[in-house]
Amino acid sequence: MENQETATKVTKRARFFIFSFNFLMINCLTSFNILSVRAADAEPVLSVVQSAENQQQWTGITKRLQSLGVRYCVIPLAQVRSSADWGDRKVLFLPNVETLNPAQAIALESWVSKGGKVIASGPVGSLSAPGVRQLLRSLLGSYWGFGLDETQQIKPATTKPQRWANQKELFGQVRGGVIIPEGGASQATAVWNAQDNPAAVVSTEWSTLLGWRWGTDAASSFELDNAWLKAAIDHHITASSSGQQKIPGADSRCATTIETATANIPPVTPVVPQAPFVPRAPRPSSPAEAIDQLEQTVHWNVEPNSNAPIDEKEAIALQQELENLISRVESAHLAASVQTANRDEAITSNPQSLKEDETRVASTRPGLSSQSKEQAITQARLVAKNIPQLLANKNYALVRQQWLATRTNLWKHFPLNRRLAPAEIRAVWLDRGTIVRAGGEKKLAEIFDRLAQSGINTVFFETVNASYPIYPSKVAPQQNPLTRGWNPLAVAVKLAHERKMELHAWVWTFAAGNQRHNQVINVHPDYPGPVLAAHPDWANYDNKGNTIPPGQTKPFFDPANPELRQYLLKLFEEIVSEYQVDGLQLDYIRYPFQDPFAGRSYGYGKAARAQFQQLTGVDPLTISPSQTELWQKWTEFRTQQVDSFVADVSKMLRQKRKDLILSVAVFPLPERERIQKLQQHWEVWARRGDIDVIVPMTYAQDTARFQRLAQPWIASSQLGSTLLVPGIRLLSLPNLAAFDQLQLIRDLPASGYALFAAENFNHDLQKILNSTQGQVLSVADEPIPLRQPFETAVVRYGLLKREWQLVIQNEQISFPAINIADFNNQMEVVEKALTQLAAAPSPAKLLTAKASLTRFQTQFRIWMREAATNNPYQVKVWENRLATIERLLRYGERRSQLR
């Protein structure tokens, strides 16, 4: 029976490919008369990319193209290795292509820079590596933000409607997603008829991104799909209709299957865009170099050589980001002034002496002129003020160049040689690669020395990776072969505790293996890892029967399998029982990435299917997202498997050692989208009190985007007493940019940060951190919020008090005279209550501290009304720091069980 089904499938596939081949041959040889192209251009003007993701949709895609009458060539994505492989057609269409590798992305960027135009649809590149996704954002001027929960009406853009996209046939009902514009050259061409009218189509001079999966009947109608594709092709061909020349370096191929039929057709070549939109890099000679160059070239939205127009919205954003950075620099200097003042003496500084000190500090900093902080800020404000005038004169490139230079100059005026950090969680992920390279205790001790000297007080130590424990385990099938001969976990615990640092075991939870790790240890790429190899029934599958979803590299366990759950609990119990770790961090505590509305879902393990069928009478493999009620039950079932396992781990840890900290590394996607795509509902874990710390992976290559990622979660009121510690990814992040993100975190109501990862912790960053958070006080001299939340609250409040005293004494903020005495009295009341609570915690003292802090917060807003008018950023920073103290009290209440 199984062989018969296989034969039938092969026959159907053969017929399909024969049909596709014949159809492509016809398309590439027939005349193209639908689009506004000169008769001389009687050749394919469109190349269509075929990939693993759109293979299932290919019939719908080709039927639409056939109906439209567009002459096109097919580019198999797997064959693309250089810009020449994209061909020399005028327009390249990427329908629902979600995975490109770095070499392909760089090749695409190079192809477009030579005059190519790109049309894309759906969540383009969303399954690619972070660097690829960033390049595609720059390339398309936008990216897929999130899917809509239901069908929505597309309507014309509310501002600056574009003529090429105003035909009534373009607007109808579509199931798609929100497109996020990025950069001044991007323009919303159409919007969704939803709250705030988010973008449905975004275009630039060289690209158009359609916010739905083109060619799928479940997303859009035949007619609307074709109307948009025709309009976009017309638009981009019209933009290139004069002065055409051959795209340098491109050949005349369509695809291997139709190369002969098109070999004699003369090439059509669009003009080169007037301005590049990303900096150019030398062509990589190897995949490794491609990745390195990609990370080095695609970080910033503001490109110095781009003369693309800047609209009013982008101009306001540029001004606001400069103002925010100015405020962060001022806030950092205030914190540094307070911390470097003699703790045993009253603050007697005056504004003039502070200015002289800052000038002296600046003049001794390597590579920096003697310009004072005030001079740099005055210059920066002038640049921000002049932006509208430069825009009026259309000096767009000059605006960008001045903005970037001003930002760099402001970064250099952070007080980088003075301590300014409060008591906070300063964590770093110590990755398996760095551990393996250390090779033994001596080199690992050097790493811990560097971390301790730079003020790091918490280490997430990679203990289980791809089912391999880094230590000799009695529970797991085998130790990681890369660490045989020594026990890195035992050594790390000893080294951390000698330096008064926290050591948390970082473990992979439901990710069972890793193809990349297989390459390192020289086993077959498809090896599922030692646990799944021994217990294949514990495997999870997607809806096509794959253990590894397309475009991904890791097989996953089935969280519904009771034997698997018991194994993991036993393994984690071994770690916390045999080693004096301070905590456990769950990574991969989720299902793999999915997109159910694109026909990709995951979770069909043997145990999960049996349990769901027992609950509902339905095999989950037979249902689809269109069956709303059943699909919701299936999503809830999978989400509950993760939720309940987190609860089980939490219960086990509390029973074994009540002092253990449980943290989770999670994705900062919107809650509803995250549940649909990952089944990771960490808000529930926080509200139930299962976890102590949430570490969202808020990785971004500039501070503005980092803030957009992190601030909603930091400000959330849905996390109970759980602390939130944003993650910062160091890979390819300039050191001053990393420091800027740290300073933003310190100005928000957060309890600390986590750096990913130790392998990117370079010498220059270490020097900055040594001075700003590790120089004056050792790690042992200040409390860690995880362990001493009440003591941390006292220290942080003491720094706040000293800041207020400083600015009042120097008349840097304005208070009505009648309020000064009241302000000072209330300030002392709060400090006394916090100090008494930290000295001898009790329910009564906690209640007193919380009540006095709440009263003070209420009055503070009244006292600061006038100051908030003149310096809204700093006043908000103070409010955020009071909110952090409030959260520390809530966290301490739960940890100390003072209820």
TrEMBL record:
Keywords of the record: Membrane, Signal, Transmembrane, Transmembrane helix
UniProt feature, compositional bias: Polar residues: 340-353
Domain of life of the source: Bacteria
Domain Glycosyl hydrolase-like intervals: 424-730
InterPro entries documented for this protein: Class_I_gatase-like (IPR029062), Divisome_Glycosyl_Hydrolase (IPR052177), GH (IPR017853), GHL10 (IPR003790)
Transmembrane annotation, as ranges: 16-35
Region Disordered, residue ranges: 340-373
Name of this chain's protein: Glycosyl hydrolase-like 10 domain-containing protein
Annotated organism of origin: Nostoc piscinale CENA21
